[in-house]
Design a protein that fits this description.
The complex is a heterotrimer. By secondary structure, chain A is an alpha/beta fold. Chain A has a single domain, classed as 3-Layer(aba) Sandwich (Rossmann fold). Chain A contains four helices and four strands. Chain A has a four-stranded parallel sheet. Chain B is α/β, with parallel strands linked by helices. Chain B has two domains: about 120 residues, Glutathione S-transferase Yfyf (Class Pi), Chain A, domain 2 (Up-down Bundle); about 160 residues, Rossmann fold (3-Layer(aba) Sandwich), CATH 3.40.50. Chain B contains 16 helices and eight strands. In chain B, α4 packs across α6 and α8 runs parallel beside α10. Chain C is of the alpha/beta class. Chain C is about 25% helix and about 25% strand. In chain C, β13 and β14 form a beta hairpin. In chain C, α2 crosses α3, α6 runs parallel beside α15 and α12 runs parallel beside α13. Classes of the chains: A alpha/beta, B alpha/beta, C alpha/beta. At the A-C interface, α1, β2, α2 and α3 of A face α4, α5, α17 and α18 of C.
Amino acid sequence: MSATGSETKASFEPRIIAFVCNWCTYTGADLAGTSRINMAPNVRIIRLPCTGRIDTTFIIKAFERGADGVIVSGCHPADCHYTAGNYHARRRFALFHDLIEFIGIDPRRVTFSWVSASEGGKWAEIVNDATERVRSLGPFAMYPRQVASSGEQHA
Amino acid sequence: MKIGYYPGCSLHATAREYEESLKAIVSILDIELEEVRDWACCGATSAHATNRFLSVALPARTLMLAERQKLNRILAPCAACYNRLASAHHAISRDKKIAARVQSILGSDFDNSVGIVSIAELLSEVTATIRQKAKAPLTGLKVACYYGCLLVRPPDVCGFDDAEAPNSLESIVSAAGATPVKWSMALECCGGGFSLSRTGSVVRLGRLILQSAIDAGAQAIVVACPMCHSNLDFRQNAMNERGGIEKRMPIMFLSELVGLSLGLSPARLGLDRHFVNPSPLLEQIGAAKTAQTRGENA
Amino acid sequence: MSRIGVFICHCGENIGRTVDCARVAQSLGELPGVVHAIDYKYMCSDPGQALIKQAIQEKHLDGVVVGACSPHMHEKTFRKAAAAAGMNPFLCEMANLREHCSWIHEDRENATDKAIGLGRFIVEKIKYNHPLSPIFIPVERRALVIGAGIAGIQAALDIADGGCDVVLVEKEPSIGGHMSQLSETFPTLDCSQCILTPRMVEIAQHPRIKLLTYSEVESVEGYIGNFQVKIRKKARSIDDTLCNGCGECQKNCPNSKIPSEFDQGLGKRTAIYVPFPQAVPNIPVIDRANCALFKGRAKGVKKVVCGKCADVCGRKAINYDQQDSFVTENVGAIIVATGYQLYSVGKKQDSELLCGYGEYGYGDIPDVIDGLQFERLASASGPTGGKILRPSDHKEPKTVVFLQCIGSRDPAKGIEYCSKICCMYVAKHAMLYHHKVHGGKAVVFYMDIRAGGKGYDEFVRRAIEENHALYLRGRVSRMYRNGDTIRVHGFDTLSGEPMVIDADMVVLATAMRPQPGIASLAQKLSVSYDQHGFINEAHPKLRPVETNTAGVFVAGACQAPRDIPDSVAMASAAASKVLGLFSKELLEREPLIAHVDTATCAGCFHCERVCPYGAIVRKEIKDGRGRFIKIAAEVNPGVCQGCGTCQATCPSKSVELEGFTDEQIYAAVNAL
């Protein structure tokens, strides 16, 4: 990955973390893989059982740790594997949206989506759209990028 | 309402009655037409049969002019012109390469923001007004509504009515008090631009259309395209001569039919320019008399 | 300090071609806590797994990260290997370097960097993994089968014959599904009812099968091994314990003009009716929407209108006041076998994705019918007694045109898939027509012939060679009524000629779709479905009869278009999965569930409110001497499904989800 801070907007490769639910979006992303759908390499997935598990602090932590954008994605309403987790996520996210704007993170950096297990193509679209959107917003510069305490470098 | 107006070549030439009747009815229907200044030919069949890019750029120029005139919609009464303008609009909005080339040829900024409506779409918006202002509703007149190839197809380009089973003309004809008949040739081709180069085919196709209208009990056919009109009206003699069609079936433009129901005289509507004289039919349904006795709107 | 082993798989060329696996292994090997890092061609193979086991034992690993395919593919495989080597399987995790990396990127640099990043997430996470023991829960050795068409019937019989009880639910008044409507079945031309009805009787008589007809699933709670299913038994208006199926009520019903659903609208039935003579159960139902008595009640008429059926019923079995009732069944497994419906060419569609065929008249041209309607004409028990007579004037059609692929394989109409059965049943229809109408001409418009089963291609050849059906490769652009006939405009692409045929009757082979209401049923079961409504299988190749919801299986045409032999095979497969599930006394469950730290729990019970399964219970906390301290939350390990909503909601972070604790997730995020 290129160095931080000195990148211009044009050449900058955004770093995006995606918190996705295991049953729908993770499987949908697997399907995108099985279907060999090409997409931007900027998104790294962290698997969770359900979007209901997502604490909004994860998102803030992600920005703190060097992410330029965050994607949160789960099952479509009414299709949650655990019946209601995605509704809780949606409500949490609605409140969170106002909060991140308040603390100075551009809400366009955070994407909230529903991707089902059969929507490999949609996942690719979301990855590509989010990457381009965050790219046009430039690197996230609010918090200095922290180097992990064990002294490792970011690759 | 105000709407842009693109007459196209034929409305100022072989289909003058189409423009005459259109201009006669719009004032009654509270529609103001603003002609696009310096419009040029849409390219018709010749352009798209020879050069794809030309077939997009020519109509695009008209759309650009309309945009400059701050018109957000234009009416193209000729179905072929309508289809070419709408196709150009569609191609530019879908294909970035074409849009870029058009932009460079036109040499000016062009947002492709102007919408194009056919006469069917426009009059569908005012059927209530037609019904209300019909001083001489055409009660008892059985009409076959002929759409031809270009009025509602392709569905992605036209985006209006049903491409396989349309009914916009029927609702306008009903608003005028006439009775649309159920028939099967509404969307079949009349031969289009082959009138001179393949006259035999045009006559054959026209004969099928006419026979079907006759079998369905129609007394007249209503059209929205000068080409269709010409093929069905001008060529009816040939259909008669080469055998098959006995009756004479008047072919009317939609604006003429609506004009009759609004109480305008046949002469005012240009109905005396047709090859197949509609007067016998009009007398039969008392339209001519009604128009004479009730006078006409300026 | 951790002792983590990293194993990067090349997966042959699948990962290795795009990702520099050696570099990934090397880079991850430099992370603190990683004591072993290698790459290998096929980690899931025996030698590959041996490498893992060896490393665990030799290097005393306390964590294993396998960078390979999706965990959905092989997490179980590697966990088993780890367990075999003596390590707790929950200390083994996978990084998805294939589906989420090598298969979606082309640039080697980018893909390798990303692979290292993904690997790092898991390495840092695993430092916080706990060893976990599986949870054992009891299994209710009873199955629920939803849908009693041929697939549901087969599955129910297999499970019942395997020694377990079955509850079979069917929404129609009789079991049998669409197969009971068919005349003959391909490729044997067996009489459909003749092979089906013995099975139907077996269902009715089987001691282990509880049959609930005219019933629908209302709600489903619970989880694998322990489902509670509430079923609505719709009111037949007949007391089924008294009715003896004599049929007097039907004979005397004054309203006999109602279009019969069983005859696909071609025949008529009475308001009190049994759908067909061989119905199981042979108990009628009153169609309240069309019954004079109920229509009178709805209008508020005080006098009893009609009531003929109650008058003639010798057993006093009619009950006009019967209401829907509910039963709750406890089952351990569920099989969805709800079958199909046919796509309609009409203008009004029940899905935004679909479009009708205006070019074929939107279904309004009389004598243009679909495949099921043709079956009813051909069927000896049908409205025409098995004679092929056209619906409009009951004349024998001398020219019949069959159209294949109506809706199917047509993205413009909203259905891009092939419906699989139509090529075969059109050939069958052409044959039956030839047998029944002497001198009749059958013309088939097709795009391709898909006859891949055993004896299938030979069957189609027979229709062409022996039964003289004219097969034209081309489509029909339009059809319309032309006097007494239907003019069909088609094209024969092999000869290059347009074909205009004046047909007496046209039969459309319309697409197969899942039944209406499938989305709502799937949501009740928490199973996923695609944009057409077909139930999603867990894996198309390796797990075709399971869904992603543990304990819910699928069989038949509700998963994809399918013919009878394949539906029966799939039903037996699903039944065998169920019997396998029931073969154990206790079910082993993954222990990735939530756990409350009662020391910090304040007893606010937000978690209780948000838990979708009601897995949180209230527990009294007492001190060493038995004195009450507080009430705290506790997770019922049998019920918790591991979604983690409680943890995200808990203000004091007292509840943790094993496998996805805050520590683990923050460790992964910190590794960005």
